[in-house]
Amino acid sequence: MGCFRVLLAIIFPPLAVLGKGCGSFVIVFLLTLCGWVPGVIAALVILNNPN
């Protein structure tokens, strides 16, 4: 997980997980619509997952 991805996850979470697949993008996008903090947390968890 690079510094650029972490910064992108904090600024705009769905864009940071775009490379992880469509499902991850949709989940993070919906969580970001519910609130910025849940979207950031989900993006960081997905980016931290090695699979």
Low-confidence spans: none
Distance between the termini: 12 Å
* Beta content: under 5%
- SSE order, one letter for each helix or strand: HHHH
Number of helices: 4
Largest beta-sheet characterization: none
Helix content: over 70%
Structural class: mainly alpha
Structurally, how many domains make up the residues?
1
Backbone CA Rg: 9 Å
Average pLDDT score: 93
Shape: globular
Please tally the β strands and state the result: 0
Summary, kept brief:
With 51 residues, this protein is mostly helical. 76% of the residues lie in helices and 0% in strands.
Chart the SSEs and their pairings.
Blueprint lengths: L2 H9 L1 H4 L5 H13 L1 H13 L3
Helix pairs in contact: 1-4, 3-4
Polypeptide structure, described:
- Its main location: membrane.
- It comes from Arenibacter aquaticus.
- By secondary structure, this protein is mainly α.
- The protein has one domain (3-48).
- The protein contains four helices and no strands.
- It has helices at residues 3-11, 13-16, 22-34, 36-48.
- Helix 1 runs antiparallel to helix 4 and helix 3 (22-34) runs antiparallel to helix 4 (36-48).
- The longest helix has 13 residues, at 22-34.
Keywords:
single chain, 51 residues, mainly alpha, 76% helix
